[in-house]
Amino acid sequence: MKKPFIQLFxxxxxxxxxxxxxxEMLPVSAESFxxxxxxxxxxxxxxxxxxxxxxxxxxxxxxxxxxxxxxxYHPYTPxxxxxxxxxxxKITLQVTQGCNLRCKYCIYSENSSxxxxxxxxxxxxxxxxxxxxxxxxxxxxxxxxxxxxFYGGEPxxxxxxxRKSVSYAKKLFDGKKITFSMTSNGTLLTDEIIDxxxxxxxxxxxxxxxxxxxxxxxxxxxxxxxxxDIVMQNIEKVKAKAPEYANQIGFSMxxxxxxDYDCINEITLSTSDMNxxxxxxxxxxxxYDEEAVVFSEGYTWKYEYHRFLGLLxxxxxxxxxxxxxxxxxxxxxxNFDKKGEYASMSLRSTDxxxxxxxxxxxxxxxxxEGKFFPCERVSESSEVMCIGDLETGFNIEKxxxxxxxxxxxxxxxxxxxxxxxxxxxxKRADNxxxxxxxxxxxxxxxxxxxxxxxxxxxxILLDEIQAYYADQVRTLREEF
Amino acid sequence: xxxxxLFPFLRSSLPFxxxxxxxxxxxxxxxxxxxxxxxxxxxxxxxxxxxxxVGVPVLAQLNYSDMNWDSLLIDYQxxxxxxxxxxxxxxxxxxxxxxxxxxxxCDSMECLDKQIIALSQEFLGQVRxxxxxxxxxxxTQYIGKYSPISVPIVLIxxxxxxxxxxxxxxxxxNRFTSENYHVSCITSSNIGLLxxxxxxxxxxxxxxxxxxxxxxxxxxxxxxxxxxERPELILIExxxxxxxxxxxxxxxxxxxxxxxxxxxxPDHFVCCVPSELIESEFINGxxxxxxNKYGFPISAVHxxxxxxxxxxxxEDEAVTSVHISxxxxxxxLDKIPSDFPVPVSNVITHGVGNIFQHLCDVLI
Lengths: 480, 364
Known about the structure:
The complex is a heterodimer of chains A (about 475) and B (about 375).
Chain A: E1 6-10, E2 15-19, E3 24-28, H1 30-40, H2 52-59, E4 71-72, H3 80-86, E5 90-94, H4 126-138, E6 145-151, H5 159-172, E7 177-184, H6 191-199, E8 203-207, H7 212-218, H8 228-241, H9 243-247, E9 250-255, H10 261-265, E10 278-283, H11 297-314, H12 325-340, E11 350-351, E12 364-366, E13 371-373, E14 388-389, E15 393-394, H13 396-403, H14 410-414, H15 438-442, H16 445-468, H17 470-479
Parallel strand pairs in A: 4-11, 5-6, 5-12, 6-7, 7-8, 8-9, 9-10
Antiparallel strand pairs in A: 1-2, 2-3, 12-13, 13-14, 14-15
Chain B: E1 3-7, H1 14-23, E2 28-33, E3 58-59, E4 71-75, H2 88-97, E5 101-106, H3 114-122, E6 127-131, E7 153-158, H4 164-178, E8 183-187, E9 198-199, H5 201-204, H6 211-229, E10 233-241, H7 255-264, E11 268-274, H8 280-294, E12 298-304, E13 306-308, H9 310-316, E14 321-323, H10 326-334, E15 344-345, H11 347-350, H12 353-363
Parallel strand pairs in B: 1-2, 1-4, 2-3, 4-5, 5-6, 7-10, 7-11, 8-9, 8-10, 11-12, 12-15
Antiparallel strand pairs in B: 13-14
């Protein structure tokens, strides 16, 4: 019996079929839904359907039993060279591999995986930094603006190099919008550095994992002392010197979900303005350590509760300024997806699953030695992830392999209902074996499908709220 | 003929530089000056759009004592750059002290900086002005009125903002002129004033006008051109994209092009489409949509070498493109079936011949 290439969704108010080929979510009657459910369970054949609604959909080209994708091939492949030669948007300079902290979860620590480089004191030479900036200039003619990021280790250990790089880049890019950004542990912010950051308007992202008891559990100096107090003192120093600049500071938060979410979230309530800051939260990365991440109940349910409050705020049913800052980004992304879902395309005969970016185009990462990687999140010791260097430029063949990571699992991908919405990039296929691993990549599929299912369901619910609860929402808006 | 350098050189100026020495005989262009950050300095101007080289280099600064150039042609409405520390006024002064000529191409005399006027008075005879609002004599009988347009209008526009619109406009102007047709042209850049063309820049940039008044001004501009030049045909450049791109990326909603269409009611439309999107079903749908909305279909297609970079487009919520090689465009054009509903070509590699021929067939 033939199954349609669909995924079914049910909400408390209605039922839907997601037509994978068309990439469309269609509301259907309960009768049609039940029939399609039977088809998916192998208890009915879509071709023998005698429900008018189903027949109409089939006539209109929906509910096809096979994927329209014949070949997995990223549509940007033929233009990869042009994209990399003309449209780089950012380069992140790893100005040092040294760091004054020894965070327990650090991917570069001695106890961590052999799949990452170890801690080292290698520093970027000025000549290398200059050539990296020149490389961005040479390869960004089609970019309306560019960004240079400073990354480590702890980048502020190389403050003179950063200062020199900013000065050089500003001259070189005269006439084009250029911005600078830095990810720092926040422990080395002297008055001189703060003045420089403010003057050059360098977007600062400080690592902060939560309140003192959580932050100091992992983010420690070599002598074992926690870094929380000094980070917070430095933030207060920035606030005192340049309050407007301080308001723009973002926080990079590595969340260990074995902790209780409310405990992590306490940091956003620690001062009156902390919740107004931008938080970029991520779950601790143990990918290259081949370790599982543990989610406690106190994290999972409380996180979901806070997220629910965030969703209510989208409809003015909860004060937006009380939504946990840690979650705001994910709520914003969902809201963006709500608009974007209508912009995404149906599947084509030659197509590639969602997930990979054009490697290096959006956030090229350059190591202290001048090696190129698609971004700062991949392993610097991985051969497959190294997409070139300052001497030889981009290795188009390797970039193309990363862009076309879908090819290694083509048969599975072609028939996967979350093809268009997949988020797996080559990092998820890199087990440091020297080549991209299909087997390793496939281990992530279930989680991705669950994420996609959850996201699409939330988008449906957001639509339903508008339709079914319009009167209530309107009343509440007026009250606010 | 004096040698000239154009400032500032932007990607949108490339079509003018490409056609410069063939379309007018007042100046010979020898260089193009721009800000160093554009990534063009030391390269041929054509690199800006990944076109074949044209032999004009991009400069980051002027050598005032260089005898190989005599005039600086200034696209005045484009010199403001909030990301540059370049002191343009000082540069203009240095040019004049070195005995060079300055030619300001501007919306109107009123929009010029007072210090520039002062320079022109100090260096009498060395500073010239071409103002868009003075390119045509204004007849008082049309002021405030909407007049039907009596001359066929060909609108050239793009599915997304692309500088190829100007390229097609200039190519068609050249071809019609070489075939002895009397053609008038309106473009969105004041550089066109050097080519005997008109610009609507002064109308769109005039904040004192309401949108309705701008449409009337556009209509009056065309009416006055008809009165003065008696053209057989008018070519008009659509100032922005013709449609909203998608719900995330509004693409300016095509609002300026909509205003031009309201002002002149074009008869034919040449559409510049990114080559990756050229499929008969898509072009048919686009053409039908335009016909339903505005009453004219797509008459011909120019396949551009812009590829919409969807990743940054969605992230920035603005259409951004990358310019692919002309070889890649040719390969895509090779796949177009012979029974494609309208003529499709790339004017850079194939010339404007078949678009011109098709327009002749439908117009004459």
